[in-house]
Amino acid sequence: MSNLFWPGSERRGDQFTQEFFLESMVSVEAAWLAALVDVGIAPESARDRLLDLVGPPDIPAISLDAEAAGNPAVPLVALMRERLAVRNPDAARWLHRGLTSQDVVDSAVMILIREVVYRIRSEVRDQVDLLMRLADQHRATPMVARTLTQHAVPTTFGLKVALWLRGILEATDTRTTDRLCVQLGGAAGTMAATVELAGGPVVGVARALEVARRTAEILDLEWVPPWHTTRGAITALNDAGVRLVDAWGRIANDVLLLSRPEIGELSEGSPGGSSTMPHKRNPVLAAQIRRAALVVPGMSAAMHITAMESIDERAAGAWHAEWGILADIDRAVVVAAAQTTALLRDLQVHPDRMAATLAGSLPDVLSEQRTMAELVGRSPADDPRDYLGASEFLIDECLDRARSYLKASAVVHR
Amino acid sequence: MSNLFWPGSERRGDQFTQEFFLESMVSVEAAWLAALVDVGIAPESARDRLLDLVGPPDIPAISLDAEAAGNPAVPLVALMRERLAVRNPDAARWLHRGLTSQDVVDSAVMILIREVVYRIRSEVRDQVDLLMRLADQHRATPMVARTLTQHAVPTTFGLKVALWLRGILEATDTRTTDRLCVQLGGAAGTMAATVELAGGPVVGVARALEVARRTAEILDLEWVPPWHTTRGAITALNDAGVRLVDAWGRIANDVLLLSRPEIGELSEGSPGGSSTMPHKRNPVLAAQIRRAALVVPGMSAAMHITAMESIDERAAGAWHAEWGILADIDRAVVVAAAQTTALLRDLQVHPDRMAATLAGSLPDVLSEQRTMAELVGRSPADDPRDYLGASEFLIDECLDRARSYLKASAVVHR
Amino acid sequence: MSNLFWPGSERRGDQFTQEFFLESMVSVEAAWLAALVDVGIAPESARDRLLDLVGPPDIPAISLDAEAAGNPAVPLVALMRERLAVRNPDAARWLHRGLTSQDVVDSAVMILIREVVYRIRSEVRDQVDLLMRLADQHRATPMVARTLTQHAVPTTFGLKVALWLRGILEATDTRTTDRLCVQLGGAAGTMAATVELAGGPVVGVARALEVARRTAEILDLEWVPPWHTTRGAITALNDAGVRLVDAWGRIANDVLLLSRPEIGELSEGSPGGSSTMPHKRNPVLAAQIRRAALVVPGMSAAMHITAMESIDERAAGAWHAEWGILADIDRAVVVAAAQTTALLRDLQVHPDRMAATLAGSLPDVLSEQRTMAELVGRSPADDPRDYLGASEFLIDECLDRARSYLKASAVVHR
Amino acid sequence: MSNLFWPGSERRGDQFTQEFFLESMVSVEAAWLAALVDVGIAPESARDRLLDLVGPPDIPAISLDAEAAGNPAVPLVALMRERLAVRNPDAARWLHRGLTSQDVVDSAVMILIREVVYRIRSEVRDQVDLLMRLADQHRATPMVARTLTQHAVPTTFGLKVALWLRGILEATDTRTTDRLCVQLGGAAGTMAATVELAGGPVVGVARALEVARRTAEILDLEWVPPWHTTRGAITALNDAGVRLVDAWGRIANDVLLLSRPEIGELSEGSPGGSSTMPHKRNPVLAAQIRRAALVVPGMSAAMHITAMESIDERAAGAWHAEWGILADIDRAVVVAAAQTTALLRDLQVHPDRMAATLAGSLPDVLSEQRTMAELVGRSPADDPRDYLGASEFLIDECLDRARSYLKASAVVHR
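YS: structure for the whole thing
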């Protein structure tokens, strides 16, 4: 997906595209219809694959009618039913029965989010792998630690990388898939229509639930009770995404700073150039990762506003606001995920410059050591490498944690 | 522009599309080249219309290369120069000379914003006109005033509408066009390249400024000194937009509430329906306006973050974040503008229901009157219409202000 | 703590007060000094309780000097050392050795957050208990379900309450205490000073870690490696708080709406009044809970900005921004927590008004039922209670989940 | 006002303190009562100064009762009336007549905001003055311009300062005082109670308006029609504050960067130190200014949410949220204003380091010049000072604008 306003958008693939949204809404209708037949509520004659009924060329018409309807599911169902009536009247009759628009849209959005979660998990696994190697490789590469912009004491580039890694591990929540769930509640979350179709209050409840669970199974989402007015699953998933963007932004900040010519301790593998200033080596990936980290928190505040503004059995406005803002946030997050992996893969480390900075910072950079040594009667150090504290241990602790993460985070093959 | 994630997007027209962004960047290059020739810096042979060199089919390639370059202007200029070399080598040689990517992108973004400003102004004028009529028409339509959800004292629907109108007038800033300005500073905002082309420090400064002013004139934007690292013009324009969305959201809130069946004092002209619940009259436009008002504040906080994160003579990340977030905000704002006009145009007012609520609220709704009357020895009122205070005066004051606004806000014919 | 700007602040107790912050910073110094002695690095003569050295009267002076120092730990340590020098020179010599200001401030902030977490957990447990009873009690209290402001189908107040409860359970994260952790990294997170004091690189690492772990034990916080530049623990804790506020706000929205005189299905136990309008029954608690939900998301976006702006081995600005914004957010969150408990404790339910609304909505409210019944050849229902779907099951499912939560969430006795 | 969570708070003085809020609410009551008497509605015997009736010791009780009432004006009026009844029964009888709580709170908040506006204006004037001198003094101090973190072309420190100045001027809105206005609408914004007191619909409207205008005059605020549900004045004032914070943050970013030891082109006059690292020269003021710029945008998004959530004739929740968040924002803004003035007053400029960086960047930093010179047949430059473009002109343009601002912005002597 090209986007002149957000370079790098091609990395996003078909995450959260209108085409995938349409396809996912149809998948939800298809799964539900199949479940109705499977459970024996709808007749076998109502079975229909549905997936070929509509496609990308229908998007303009559905989108146009979505305003008057309030959401895209209404015109989608109308169009599907119209086309289905020709080839399979029973399917047309049973299509969408028991569902409400929010069921279709929310479950479809969860399919979209699931793919984002899988994509981000895959990027994070690559990042963890790259960072583990980098931390290990540079566990003994000394550099100056900077606090509040000033030189403080010695550290190693390996420990800095371990902190980058730690930031990502902290932000990664392996439980997120538990929250990828269907929304199947009917008009007001009581499942009343499905219960009615399934035989009424006495016998219908169990069968209606069976339909819902079967639908979830077909869609490969969790079944949970209707959550039409409790949006905590979506905000929790989104919050986890923001924390990852924070972690990537934090890495980008270090790369941007350490790529400055006055420091020169890092550089991007393929920096951007300038036609009239051929010496320029702009850290373009880091700049674009940082871009995401600057805007995602504000956009995500909007997600919480939509959650807190839930009311009644379906909110007017708060619900409608979710889809667009999620798509916008997704663009920023997925592109940043991929750009961070790319940045780390080709990151150029310059131990010579790190060593030079550190040497130039002597003896100040060992002043704390002298104070401490004096207190306990030890000798003053001359070599910054003698004042690295527990840095090796701390790197190893982080590598251990990373290994645990890699084990715990299932690889999803699709 | 269809958008399944944001129904109503068709109302947006080509505001902030990639196509228009591309066209605007080309317009900036064309204006600059023309100005270089006009001022006599580039030869007449370098004159070229440029506008036909690239078009929508080039977007994917430019977008793809924009990531490595950091922005879309770099690959655009490369492509234009390559094609120009064939038909007009002198133009190819002079293309973009004196400009930097940020000049092209920022000035183009201002062209995009200008069209948004004009569109919003046009919608606001229509809204003001509709609200003036509605306020005047209902200046004597009594209804209950509600404070903290409870019935308080009588008011009129005309005064409520006057407050809606006042909200829009407050938010409207007739000076915004002053801030629609070119960015023409060269590599670091010193205009050094253009001064060099114009003959160097001694004679070139005046001529370089002439080029910049001529470019602004061609583009119909203001000339101001380079603002590459002061983003107050863009944030001020955006803040004004947020205040308008606040005002529209406030109207939508009242419509949503007063359309509830228990109240029924207002309804939308074309409410949304439901296939299985034919009695439903969903206030879909108000819901979609409210949607915008819920998300725009958070997104706009991100704009301020990009402004405050300016640094150096061009910020890495903060600058890059602006384009995408502006496009996202624009979608919400322009669609809400148009939907608000549509909502007001067809708003159904039910004075009978207003009267019934008010009658049902007697005698409580006149309890304050009794307290006041007693204090000054006046008679208790029986009719809520006798306790409307200065409402007529306040309506007229607002109508006066609205008339002034309509006079002051230039109609732009395009 | 009185606060005219935020009524209800007295409910906050001493959460996040300056006094408690001061006390917590001293506790961190005390725990560290004790650990240094316990591990045998500092002499027994350096043992000192410290806690009586400074107190609330010292706040103005420490606060004043905190600006020049950049944080309050620097003047605090200076003051403590000065006073300690008189009564215990050895303690004065060993005070703060191995620590940096960020260690003291971050660990103290975690103590403050811990008390907030415990307080909120206690409120949530009370809320869960109240909501369980309410859901159970009203499992058969029919009312109309409202979607997009319009009457849809029947539901029960018990199911509405179950959704409120579900919202809180979704937002509650029982793992939060894992993230309550010390920060003990020294000048740049390498623990170098402590390692030096503990005998240098060869023998000192294990002993330095022992000091850190012992300090954590004394403070009753988790030991984790230094997180000076990865702020995911704090943002995750805060995000969980925002989700709770969203859930409380969502309850408040329903209460505000259903307390409207035109609906009258709920009311607060002690609504606010008006001297001249004695009939007013303002839902003041719900209004004040909603107040928090409206502002916390934006404030929390700021927390993510501070996290993403981490850089170097200590960020200039991003770190400094955390303390104040956390204190502001805490005020909103803790007061809303307590007000929600109070609101639920005294909530007045009016089943008669619910029944009347529902009756008045017939036959529309059963139109969906008729469509469904017709499709499967069942009879049309006359009684809304025959169209409640799986509502009882869904209530029970939620009650089960609530019971699990109450079991899993440890009660902290303090 | 000490604040361990926000060092530098002492600079705030009594801006937005609870004490000043209380005093301002009393001032509003006093002005209104005086106006009622002045206009001849209340008897001369009701005249009372009021200001001595309550004071800081009453804050805890008023704050405590404010929750049940929903706002602090209700218990304040009750307390005042109780005390007044003893010494002046007529005044007690007429106190607050015609007003509603929102009138008192909103007008008082405007008094608080006015003092903030005056304070900020005073700081801005000082900043403009300091920046004008600095820009002029360094108009010929060459330094390297940095774009996207890399060295680009030469510029001058004077031009950088001119951009800082331009950022502040852009953000400064001399019209803000127009928006400092009373809110005097009575129970629902109709002024009905006052009209009743003034003689009823026929003769009372003009006299009621006279009371309102007289009150505004006494309070030195503008009179505008009631704005109880249109909050554009407050959000516009706040937006202007955010833009100033953006401008200050942008300056702080440059100071933080250029104070890094690897660059060393700027330093703070009184940097912060470290006991064990005596070489540290932490840019503490810049860090603390940046702190404000990071958090204010998110907090201000909350202000827009409260504005958009207006509804009815008084919003439940949205109105209540304003006071606290405004106080929080004020703390950040006023402290940052004062710290920026202090930072600029003592800023240390190191032209030698600037010159050294520039020299070290040769010949790259002149590569653009060579390309341009070649195009027009001019000689390559050797000296960066020969490639400064229109920088002097641009500085002068900015100084002119600054002079205009200083003339236009009235100095308020208080």
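YS: worth flagging: Chain D has 14 helices and four strands.
IM: good catch. Also Chain D has a mean pLDDT of 96.
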